[in-house]
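Dear colleague,

Thank you for sharing your sequence with our group. We've completed the structure prediction you requested, and as agreed, I am returning the results in plain text so they can be pasted directly into your records. Please verify that the sequence below matches your submission; if there's any discrepancy, let me know and we will rerun it promptly.
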Amino acid sequence: MTDIFGDLWVTLSALIHIGAATAVSVHVLLTKRNVGASVAWVGLAWLAPYTGALAYLVLGINRVHGKAVQVSPSDVSPRAIRSRFAVDLAEIDPKGPESDLVQLARLGESLTQLPLVAGNRIDPLVDGDQALPAMVAAIDAAERSVGLSSYIFRFDEGGRPLVDALAAARARGVAVRVLVDGIGVGYFNTPVVRALRARGVRTARFLHSWLPWRMTYLNMRNHKKILVVDGRTGFSGGLNIGGENLRHRPDGDRVQDLHFRIEGPVVEQMTRVFIEDWAFTTGERLDGPDWLPGPAAAGPLFARGIASGPDQSLERLRWTISGALGRSNERVSILTPYFLPDQRLITVLVLTALRGVQVDIVIPARGNHRLFDWAVSDQIDQVLEAGCRVHLTPPPFDHSKLMTVDGSWALFGSANWDARSLRLNFEFNIECYNRDFAGYLSDIIDAKIARSTPWTLDQVRARSLPVRLRDGVAGLLLPYL
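Please find the predicted C-alpha cells below.
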C-alpha cells in the first residue's frame, strides 16, 4: 500500500511540474520579446521543478501594465496633450539651427504621443545646496497645488526643510500630494512618511504592500524625481532628497548631482505624469485648474517630457537614446553614475563611434556599489575598442545624469544607463532642442572631463585573472543591476 501511495505521489508531483512548466512556457511565448530572457525562463521552469515556475510567477510576469491600463484615467493621460505651444515640425526652417534634429523630434512624438512644445525655460541647479532651497522656495510660494514624487526622501538636514514647507503649504490651504517609492524611502522604516502624515500631508508609497501576493511588484520602482507647483513651475533631474547632496559633507559621504528648475508648457506634461502616478497608486483623480491651469510661455527652449517604465512604455527611453545616437554627426557626451547598458545599446554606441562621432562617457572612478563597478569593468572594453573615450571622475560620487548630441540636443532626468532604468524602473526625463542650452550642458560635462582621468583599453586588459573572473561573475548579474 505504501508503494502505491508513493508511486501516486511521484506521478502527481511530475504532473504538477509538467503543468506548471507548460503554463510558464506558454505565457513566455505569448508575452516575452527578449529571446535570451525567454529561453532562460523556459529553461528554469523545466529544469528547476516548482522553484522555477514560482520564480517566474514572482519576478517574470509584468503585472504593472494591466493595472496601469485599468487605473489610469484617460482624461489625464499625457497622450491627450495638445496646445498652442506644440511645435509644428513641418514649419521648421530646413536651413535653420534645429533642422538637423527634426527627424529625432518626430521620433520623440511617435514614441510618446506628445508634441514638442515651445516656450520653456530650464535652469540647472548644482547639488543640493542650490536645488533644495529652490524647491523649498517654490513650495513656499505655492498658491494652489504641490505634487512631489521622489525615489529617496530622507527626513534629515536635506529633507526636513521640504517636509516643513510641504506641511506649511497644506496648512494654508494648498492641495499637497507626496508620492515616494515603496523601497527607496525604506520598506520597513520610513521616517519621512510618518513625519508628513503626522502633519496632515497626503502621502502615498508606490507599489508598497505587506501582503505576500503583492510582493511580486518589489522589483519595479518609481525612480522619478518630479516636483510641480501650481502646474506652472517644475523641478526634475537626478537629485534624491537627502543631506548627502549638501556640499559640507565629507567627500566619502557626499553625492554630487544636477537638478533643474523648469518653467513653460513642458511643466504641464510633467504635471500630467505626476497625476497619472498618483492615480495609479491611490485611485484619486487630480484635475482642474489647481493642477492644470493651462500652459504659459517662459523662455526659448523646445522641450518634451519622456515618461518610461514597464507599463505601456518599456522601450521608450532606449529608443529615444538610440535615435539620438543615430542622428549624431560630431559628438555625443554622456554623464551617468552607472554605465551598464545592455548589448543592444552598446551596439548602437559602438556603431556611433565607428562612424567617426566622438563619444565621451563620464562615470565615477568609484561608484557607491562595488558590484556595479565590477560589472562595468567586465563590459567597458567593448566601447573602448570602438574608440569611445571613457573618463573617470574623482570623489565625491557623481550622481548626475546628462546626455548631449552635437551641442544641439540634450536629455536629462532620473534615468541611469543601466538595465534597471531601461527596463524595470518608472523614469522621467526631458529632451531639449536648443543650441545654447545643450552647449551649456556640454560645458558642464567638459569641466568634469577636465578633472577626470582616462580609462584606457590597456588598463582594462591588464587586469589580473582573478579580477577578470570576479568582474565576469558580476557581469552575469547585469539584467538585475
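Summary note from our side: The two ends are 52 Å apart (CA to CA).

Kind regards,
the structure core
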